[in-house]
Amino acid sequence: xxxxxxxxxxxxxxxxxxxxxxxxxxxxxxxxxxxxARLAEQLDSDDEETRSQAIGELExxxxxxxxxxxxxxxxxxxxxxxxxxxxxxxxxRQQQAxxxxxxxxxxxxxxxxxxxxxxxxxxxxxxxxxxxxxxHHELTSRKSxxxxxxxxxxxxxxxxxxxxxxxxxxxxxxxxLKAGHSIPGAQLISRCSWRIR
Length: 197
What we know:
Largest sheet: 2 strands, antiparallel
Distance between the termini: 69 Å
Number of strands: 2
Shape: flat
Number of helices: 4
């Protein structure tokens, strides 16, 4: 008679630490990204010491992974996530600001038109009035004088003020510096710009 015995799988070797799962890696990356975001907020501080400390911590977090390429790449990736998020927020806020400016302009224009209409009706009813009082508001007039120029070209020279402005011709200065000319007050600077994709 043959007896069948179940074969138990061999226990994992304790000498080799198990690699972290995707869930654990995700949590670690999320924590790091949140930490980078918190430090990035301090970069906007008016306190120079707070800014310097935040920059130091951000740089130290990257430098401590020198020689550990995978860990460095992971940390750098978290920095990129925060940078992209901040740029996205900035673009969104700029769009919102533009939309709000347009809304404000529209509402201001409607308010002006409504005020003109109200004044027109009230002054037709009481042409000599300079003040109108209502239960919760008061409408008052104020006299002022302003010069309106119909044709600036026909004004005599004594009634004109001369304004002159000057600005550096950067394109010409750049070409001259590249050609080896020395221009006091100007220098050619080489810059390297980076872009996150």
